[in-house]
Specification:
The protein is built from three helices and eight strands. It has 128 residues and is α+β, with helices and mostly antiparallel strands.
């Protein structure tokens, strides 16, 4: 979600800077520094998402698991986690500590992540 907002800002800056620049260039025959600044800030904001880590981290309770034909599962849609090539880690909550556990993790073609277990438990899911 953060990346989508930055990309939207990038598009707005580049388009508005370009329109302002073309308008001034046609009217006055020169390109202003303000237009150049708006265009460059738009291009820079478009590059920022590639350098910012926006991990998806969420705690789940036992009641959050949905019963499925093979046990219990949690589905995290791509629109929720927003990661292009997700890598998922699950941590089980025990006595106030989180322990890394091995569970079945399926990545769907549409980018959704499905975490499946035999028995539900309190956990933290990290997608990066």
């Amino acid at each position: 979600m953060k990346n989508q907002i930055l990309i939207l800002i990038c598009i707005i800056c580049v388009v508005s800077g370009s329109v302002l620049g073309i308008y001034q260039w046609l009217g006055e025959g020169k390109f202003s520094l303000i237009s150049l600044f708006i265009i460059l800030s738009g291009l820079i904001s478009g590059l920022i998402p590639f350098f910012i880590s926006s991990d998806y981290i969420k705690n789940y309770n036992r009641s959050d698991w949905q019963m499925s034909s093979e046990g219990y599962s949690i589905v995290i849609t791509k629109t929720k986690h927003g990661i292009r090539h997700p890598s998922t880690t699950v941590y089980k909550s025990e006595n106030g500590k989180y322990l890394k556990v091995v569970v079945q993790i399926d990545l769907q073609p549409n980018g959704d992540v499905i975490v499946s277990v035999n028995f539900p438990f309190d956990c933290k899911i990290v997608i990066n």
